């Protein structure tokens, strides 16, 4: 032990002179590094060609896609320019054997600082104010239209339950003390409003082109309700009733993912979303209501 | 502890806060104590913020008049605040070098602190006897009991630590091993403990 | 005469124990922190490799690993609970016990006193205590793998109720409690360190060392310490309350009416969102605690190897102030879709977009520091340029996530994983490597091997981009993080190919890191002897012998006459002028 530490921290006189490095060291590394810097935006472009969000299938989703695409274009441009400048600097200044600079005055520094300030205010802040906030307001702040269909989503380790209010349009009361194998949501048997509630496990059926209001609840821990194609994502918090609304505008079958860590089966908490024509949906609803 | 370094401002070079000249012209011990107090104050701020959040999120909150004996609380508060005054006197006496007076006032401060702790212990025992626990309490929502015990307990722990510090300082002062700087640090800490109570007191007992 | 600025340090302690183990010398403590971080990095890195193996070849049987982890990998096949422990512990260890320890505590301790001309920290004993609190914290963290139920498994963010209810996930048994205890020890230690840093930097600067003459390393460490002091109390309060929820039946973070594992949960009245707010009130500034020192050290390395002053010293300091201030009011951008009020979401998105401004100014200053320089592409310099590239790439990715609208799609996806690995994994790690190669001669009196260093750089760079650049785009596909396997979803199956490349890159990066370790330890014994100032740099640490003696300065502490970046000054005899040189050009008296 002591020997190792003596080696680690030995004080010995500095015998050798300085300057183990000279000018023009590592020129080839400069060229390579510059090329690597240029490669990065190019790689990003290649990746982007192959990896894009699934086709959008909801009304507000187009707005989110616009935001993302704007950022991809604007920030991608900045990325390209930034890396090109870095590449140029690294290549250019690794090839000279003496410095060639003038010490920047305070004024010059401030002038140059304006470039990132203006760019960021325009691209980042401007982008979110122009493209982002309106979509955010529509998705989160605005209330669902009156004709919206209301469905309750309940997250449970590790399945999804969906509850339709039935003909009366009212959800029955639930309480944790009523939960058992047959009554997964704990419906209060004394509440008349709950008698015609339709509970479906694992599969959410929705009519196309009609606003849907989702009431999100959890039985146990945090869950994340994610519809990639519809660009809907909302964490589900136990003890809270959170509402989101959206308009699915493509019929078809989609997957529902859980995106907030919820335990062992988090990776297989799969649900299905079936978006169907309004008539088919009504038919299904009528068939299943007793 | 005495300030180890003497600051020779004339020696330092131009421009703001040049070496050895600190922004507040204090010793590092005092600066460090202040920083610690800021951090600890933020810890209490965190607790009180949680308390406020939980309280606002609760459907109802117990009626203070039913739960607390405000006379007792007033007495507790008076004891603690007066101990703050005696502590300040002790610090000033130390600055002037009257060490016998320092010891006397430190003992008075100790008495105030112990009285506070004793009354708090009495209050707690009354609560526990009435059936209040961390999980539930007879007056209303569970978070009431939990936040009460947690936050007053945390403050009580600070007072207890303060009493230990005061004891050590008193012994050292009596045997002539204390310095004015050290008393100042202890005084800062004690003032901080007082100040925290000034926040806890209205937030729990009055509002 | 100059009064000795040490408090109660005992200079020249003799004997092995006082000198190397329970030492109060800031340099020894710094090295102790660094080596501790290195050991923890080995563990945390190994955890990451295990995760990569599972993600690339789900359910693969590795019987030799089954012997090592009989509970977590029975028969060599990883269980989901073990995977969740891996992600939790990898995150916790890397953020708090590797990057924090190495950059902030390790280099912070080593560099602050010696760069400001002090003999030691303000309170060396407290400094020693803070290291010896971290050691049990590390041991508890590591030990939690071997308790029943395994290590904590609720993610490094430890969101309740998962972290509050032992029945919710196996790791929420003793593992989570130990996690909380270790974090508490870490926070106490970090607070002690922070007190020392701020006090030392404000009060113990040597004569002439005004604030605007400080090297940027010291400035950034100062702000990191301030941020830590201001924000850790929030997590402390939250952690204490979570402990109470877990063991004493309180309900600060657990609401009523929960049904977990077939039983009704007896809690009532809390809210899980509260934890998220408190956690991220620390968690976001913590990013800057890690990032700022990395940037500061990069500036110092850049100046030495471009042979010119950094660009925009004042701008950087102002940006640091703005960043520090803004960073404590933007925590909500981690919670856009968490269920908090959408109006808060708007506030946080606008605030977060504002924080891109000082970040971009710092980015500009980093790049512009190269302009007109005469680049010496030594290993530390290569890593420093790597930092600039990573800072750019990662920073631009952040714009997507700080934007509430695009975050609706990208939140909790691999885009997030890619982004934060670039920022608090890449920038910090590359800066740490740069700093290690740069200050190694000062710390140990020997130089690290250049050839190995460059190979290390190139393998790391390629490996790093290979790992995390693609992850951004997986996130664009919607791939969620913290999944044990991607086999259950039709839309995730086509993405499996990318995982292979990410894993290969991670093996490359791991190999490079072993090269670094070899270089480090080999150079300790066999590296070529280093002079006082092998890089011809200007700051104070290079004016003393390598390694510096206890107390740093042989005679009197130095006097400072100029700022930290006097390179290639016109009319100067050489292309660097140490801070101790008097304005007329004569060397200051020793």
What does this structure look like?
- Chain A is of the alpha+beta class and 290 residues long.
- Chain A is 39% helix and 20% strand.
- Chain A has a 5-stranded mixed β-sheet with strand order 3-2-1-5-8, with no helix packed on it. In chain A, strands 4-10-9-6-7 form a 5-stranded mixed β-sheet, with helices on one face.
- Chain A is elongated.
- The termini of chain A are far apart.
- Chain B is mainly alpha-helical and 207 residues long.
- Helices cover 73% and strands 0% of the residues of chain B.
- Chain B has 6 helices and no strands.
- Chain B has helices spanning 28-57, 64-67, 70-96, 99-129, 142-174, 180-206.
- In chain B, helix 3 runs antiparallel to helix 6 and helix 5 (142-174) runs antiparallel to helix 6 (180-206).
- Chain C is globular.
- Chain C has helices at 16-21, 26-56, 63-68, 80-116, 124-143, 174-203, 216-247, 272-306, 313-327, 342-368, 379-402, 404-410, 414-444, 450-476, 496-526; strands at 259-260, 263-264.
- Chain C is an all-alpha fold and 590 residues long.
- Chain C has 15 helices and 2 strands.
- Among the domains of chain C are: 302-527, Up-down Bundle (Cytochrome C Oxidase, Chain A); 533-590, no CATH class.
- Chain C has a two-stranded antiparallel sheet with strand order 1-2.
- The chains are: A alpha+beta (290), B mainly alpha (207), C mainly alpha (590).
Percent range for β-strand residues of chain C: under 5%
What is the N-to-C succession of helices and strands of chain B? HHHHHH
- The structural class of chain C is mainly alpha
Low-confidence stretches of chain C: 1-10, 585-590
Count of helical stretches of chain C: 15
CATH architecture of the domain at 302-527 in chain C: Up-down Bundle
Question: What's the CATH H-level superfamily name of chain B?
Answer: Cytochrome c oxidase, subunit III, four-helix bundle
Radius of gyration of chain C: 24 Å
Helical stretch tally of chain B: 6
Offer a concise description of the structure.
The complex is a heterotrimer of chains A (290), B (207) and C (590). Chain B is an all-alpha fold. Chain B contains six helices and no strands.
Layout of helices and strands:
The complex is a heterotrimer of chains A (290), B (207) and C (590).
Chain A: H1 2-9, H2 27-50, H3 61-93, H4 106-141, E1 149-156, E2 159-164, E3 198-201, E4 203-207, E5 212-218, E6 223-227, E7 232-236, E8 242-246, E9 252-258, E10 271-276, H5 278-288
Parallel strand pairs in A: 1-5, 4-10
Antiparallel strand pairs in A: 1-2, 2-3, 5-8, 6-7, 6-9, 9-10
Helix pairs in contact in A: 2-3, 3-4
Chain B: H1 28-57, H2 64-67, H3 70-96, H4 99-129, H5 142-174, H6 180-206
Helix pairs in contact in B: 1-5, 1-6, 3-4, 3-6, 4-5, 5-6
Chain C: H1 16-21, H2 26-56, H3 63-68, H4 80-116, H5 124-143, H6 174-203, H7 216-247, E1 259-260, E2 263-264, H8 272-306, H9 313-327, H10 342-368, H11 379-402, H12 404-410, H13 414-444, H14 450-476, H15 496-526
Antiparallel strand pairs in C: 1-2
Helix pairs in contact in C: 2-4, 2-5, 2-15, 4-6, 4-7, 4-8, 4-13, 5-6, 6-7, 7-8, 7-9, 8-9, 8-11, 8-13, 9-10, 10-11, 11-13, 11-14, 13-14, 14-15
């Amino acid at each position: 032990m002591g020997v190792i530490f003596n080696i680690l921290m030995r004080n010995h006189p500095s015998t050798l002179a300085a300057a183990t490095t000279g000018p023009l060291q590592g020129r080839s590394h400069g060229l390579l590094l510059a090329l690597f810097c240029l490669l990065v935006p190019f790689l990003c472009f290649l990746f982007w060609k192959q990896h894009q969000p699934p086709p959008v299938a909801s009304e507000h989703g187009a707005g989110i896609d616009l935001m993302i695409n704007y950022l991809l274009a604007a920030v991608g441009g900045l990325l390209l320019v930034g890396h090109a400048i870095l590449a140029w600097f690294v290549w250019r200044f690794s090839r000279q054997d003496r410095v060639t600079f003038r010490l920047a005055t305070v004024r010059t520094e401030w002038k140059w600082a304006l470039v990132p300030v203006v760019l960021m205010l325009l691209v980042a802040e401007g982008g979110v104010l122009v493209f982002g906030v309106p979509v955010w307001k529509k998705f989160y702040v605005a209330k669902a239209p009156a004709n919206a269909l209301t469905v309750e989503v309940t997250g449970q380790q590790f399945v999804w339950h969906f509850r339709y209010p039935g003909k009366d349009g009212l959800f029955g009361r639930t309480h944790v003390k009523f939960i058992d194998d047959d009554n997964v949501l704990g419906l209060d048997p004394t509440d008349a409003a709950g008698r015609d509630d339709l509970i479906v496990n694992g599969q959410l059926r929705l009519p196309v082109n009609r606003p849907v209001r989702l009431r999100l609840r959890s039985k146990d821990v945090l869950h994340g309700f994610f519809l990639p194609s519809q660009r809907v994502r909302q964490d589900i918090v136990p003890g809270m009733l959170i509402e989101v609304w959206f308009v699915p505008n493509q019929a078809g079958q989609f997957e529902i993912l859980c995106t907030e860590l919820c335990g062992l089966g988090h990776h297989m908490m799969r649900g299905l979303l079936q978006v169907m024509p309004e008539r088919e949906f009504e038919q299904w609803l009528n068939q299943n209501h007793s | 502890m005495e300030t180890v370094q003497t600051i020779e401002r004339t020696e330092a070079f131009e421009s703001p806060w040049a070496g050895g000249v600190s922004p507040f012209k204090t010793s590092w011990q005092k600066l460090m104590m202040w920083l610690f107090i800021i951090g600890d104050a933020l810890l209490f701020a965190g607790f009180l913020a949680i308390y406020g959040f939980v309280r606002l999120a609760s459907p109802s909150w117990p009626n203070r008049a039913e739960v607390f004996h405000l006379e007792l609380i007033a007495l507790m508060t008076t004891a603690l605040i007066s101990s703050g005054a005696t502590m300040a006197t002790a610090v000033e006496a130390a600055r002037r070098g009257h060490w016998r007076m320092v010891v006397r006032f430190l003992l008075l401060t100790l008495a105030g602190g112990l009285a506070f702790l004793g009354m708090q212990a009495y209050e707690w025992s009354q609560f526990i006897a009435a059936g209040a626990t961390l999980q539930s309490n007879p007056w209303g929502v569970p978070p009431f009991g939990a936040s009460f015990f947690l936050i007053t307990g945390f403050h009580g722990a600070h007072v207890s630590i303060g009493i230990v510090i005061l004891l050590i300082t008193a012994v050292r002062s009596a045997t002539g091993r204390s310095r004015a700087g050290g008393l100042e640090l202890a005084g800062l800490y004690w003032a901080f403990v007082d100040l925290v109570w000034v926040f806890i007191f209205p937030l729990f007992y009055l509002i | 005469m100059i009064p000795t600025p040490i408090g109660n340090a005992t200079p020249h302690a003799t004997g092995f124990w006082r000198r190397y183990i329970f030492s109060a010398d800031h340099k020894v403590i710094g090295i102790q922190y660094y080596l501790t971080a290195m050991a923890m990095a080995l563990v945390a890195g190994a955890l990451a490799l295990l995760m990569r193996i599972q993600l690339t070849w789900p359910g693969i049987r590795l019987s030799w690993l089954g012997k090592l982890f009989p509970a977590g990998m029975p028969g060599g096949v990883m269980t989901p609970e073990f995977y969740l422990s891996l992600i939790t512990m990898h995150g916790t260890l890397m953020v708090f016990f590797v990057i924090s320890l190495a950059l902030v505590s390790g280099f912070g301790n080593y560099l602050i006193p010696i760069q400001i001309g002090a003999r030691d920290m303000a309170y060396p004993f407290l400094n020693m205590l803070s290291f010896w609190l971290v050691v049990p914290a590390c041991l508890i963290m590591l030990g939690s793998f071997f308790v029943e139920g395994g290590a904590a498994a609720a993610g490094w963010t430890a969101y309740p109720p998962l972290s509050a209810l032992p029945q919710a996930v196996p790791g929420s048994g003793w593992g989570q409690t130990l996690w909380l205890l270790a974090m508490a020890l870490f926070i106490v230690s970090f607070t002690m360190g922070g007190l020392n840093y701020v006090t030392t930097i404000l009060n113990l600067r040597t004569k002439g060392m005004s604030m605007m003459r400080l090297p940027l390393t010291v400035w950034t460490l100062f702000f990191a310490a301030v941020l830590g002091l201001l924000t850790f109390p929030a997590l402390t309060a939250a952690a204490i309350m979570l402990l109470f929820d877990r063991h004493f039946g309180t309900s600060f973070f657990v609401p009523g009416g929960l049904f977990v594992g077939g039983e009704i949960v007896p809690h009532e009245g809390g809210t899980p969102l509260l934890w998220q707010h408190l956690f991220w009130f620390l968690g976001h500034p913590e990013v800057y605690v890690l990032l700022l020192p990395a940037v500061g050290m990069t500036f110092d390395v850049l100046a030495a190897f471009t042979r010119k002053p950094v660009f925009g010293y004042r701008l950087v300091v102002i940006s640091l102030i703005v960043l520090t201030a803004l960073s404590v009011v933007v925590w909500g951008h981690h919670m856009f879709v968490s269920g908090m009020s959408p109006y808060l979401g708007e506030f946080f998105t606008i605030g977060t977009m504002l924080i891109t401004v000082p970040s971009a100014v710092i980015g500009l200053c980093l790049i512009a520091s190269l302009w007109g320089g005469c680049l010496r592409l030594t290993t530390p310099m290569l890593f420093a340029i790597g930092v600039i590239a990573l800072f750019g790439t990662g920073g631009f990715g952040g714009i997507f996530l700080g934007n509430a609208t695009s975050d609706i799609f990208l939140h909790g996806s691999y885009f997030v994983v890619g982004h934060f690995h670039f920022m608090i994994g890449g920038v910090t790690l590359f800066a740490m490597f740069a700093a290690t190669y740069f200050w190694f001669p000062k710390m140990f009196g020997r130089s690290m091997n250049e050839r190995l260093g460059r190979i290390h750089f190139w393998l790391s760079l390629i490996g790093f981009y290979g790992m995390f650049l693609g992850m951004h785009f997986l996130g664009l596909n919607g791939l969620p993080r913290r999944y044990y396997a991607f086999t259950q979803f039709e839309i995730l199956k086509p993405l499996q190919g990318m995982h292979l490349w990410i894993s290969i890159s991670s093996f490359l990066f791991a190999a490079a890191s072993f090269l670094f370790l070899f270089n480090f330890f080999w150079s300790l014994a066999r590296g070529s002897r280093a002079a006082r100032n092998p890089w011809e740099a200007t700051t104070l640490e290079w004016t003393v012998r390598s390694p510096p003696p206890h107390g740093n300065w042989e005679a009197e502490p130095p006097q400072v006459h100029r700022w930290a970046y006097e390179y290639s000054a016109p009319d100067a005899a050489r292309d660097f002028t140490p801070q101790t040189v008097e304005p007329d050009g004569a060397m200051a008296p020793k």
